[in-house]
## 1
Amino acid sequence: MNRIVSIALQTIGILGFNILYFNVFDDLSASRWVCWGYIHLTYALVVASVFSVKAVPNGHVYAYPKIAVASIYFIIALIVGAIMMIINCDSPVVPLVVFLIFTGIYLKLYLVLMATESSSIANEKRDKRYVRFVKLNAERLSAIRDNMGSAEGKKIIERAYDAIRGAEVTSVPAVAQIEVDIESQIDRIADLSGSSDMETLRSTVGRFVDLVRRRDAEIRLSK
């Protein structure tokens, strides 16, 4: 709905401009046509920025700064273009130079927004991957615990489950090997869950908990 309202407001502005343009000016000179074309170009950028909402995940967050910048750019182009139409320069070079300056400023702002957007999306994907590491391993241990036959074994594995469930959901490259070791220990715990050797299971869970704590400590130190 917000996209429809935004486009509707911009469309009313461009329609009103065209009505005035073709009814007020008798001399449609080259400089006036340059202004007319430039204003329509900035209007197209507003429409494109509005429809970019669905182009990326969480587009409703990233698109609004672009919509705001494009809308301001359009309004400035509309005001400056109207003034230059009234002046009606003899050569289209003057409005072209003015509009190129505004375009350079807009592109610089837009590129900054795009760089911020790309960085934020990359960080979101990374964070989801890290959350998935903790979630999947917690689910594996939960399943192993539930399938454990003895109450003692369930209690031992519960300690491992509590450790990974409370682990840091963020991560850093320095703990990559520790995370591999954590997953290997879960495989080992799964193998031992079918045996009656509680002492080996307990020591394996102890090593697992130590690995989780080492991982969390390394992550906290890197912050």
## 2
Amino acid sequence: ALLFFAGCAQKNEIKYYLLGANSIERGEVKKSGAVTVDSVSYLSGDKIWYLKDGLFLPYKNSFFAKTPKEFVAESLQTIGIDEKITVKITDAYQIYEGDKSSFALSVTISVGEGVLRKVKNYKVRKGELGIGAKEAAKGFEMCVLELVERAKNDFISLR
């Protein structure tokens, strides 16, 4: 019994990282049409993934407070396009580089339907981050903010 209770005392605290609290303007922003986000299977939950020394793993006790799909969908609502927006997240993970890290995000965005549909692939990488899940969450948020700006510029300029 003593070993059992000692093991329970050794568990690390579970941490959830809230994204987007202050970074996306929520004021007088024209909302977009329907935004549908899909992702590869490893990104369907709230786990924070990282690549270190050739191993691709999720953090054990750290999670996003929103799934990547939810955060990307909410963020893309702010670009102000009336047409249907379809997003596929193909990669989102932290990359360890010695005592620093970066975060990589890859998505495909299509706007509209049928023959008028416009499709664009995005690869965003933010570096100069520290180590740990908190830095991964920060990097993910930075990547999504850049993605929103790039998508806004790309798709609004096509109008």
## 3
Amino acid sequence: ESDNLAEFVRNHCLVRIERSAIDARTLQGFPLGFSDRLLAVLYVCDFRVDGLLFLRRDTITDVRVNATAAFQRQLMCDAGLVAAEQFCLPYRIDSFASLLAGLAVNQITILEQESLDDSRFWIGRSVRREDGTRWLHEFTGAGNWGDSLTKIDLNAVTCCQVETNYIRFYQDYFDSQGFP
């Protein structure tokens, strides 16, 4: 499996990713790198690059290039939607803890605990406490910051989203309002 991932990363392949215990649908993206624990993916939705996903590898049941992915990659390249600078991975991905530690202080992220039956979703800014635990300063969909921090069990997290269009809109709003 790691040999295939290394080839997909090296060749900037558009792949389909299955996580059968989490979602009946497949994800599509360009693998950027991987560790024993995480796979970093430049996420693609409807032929548009939509930020970075960091997926827990033990939740991935299959990663492959099929004829559709190969054709769609070519369509994206022909349309100028794929650029070499997109394939740079500026984060450490040994674990979710190392990934979150590398984020800018005010950078918004989404953490998810996904399953077919019950999923959890948190959006906010990562905060590390003195004891080394990870907390999230969450906000609501209406842009209201919580009064307290949420402790996150990183062992339960299956996906982290960074720099997606969804996040970018909130980030731009908070930055324009001068919110810390």
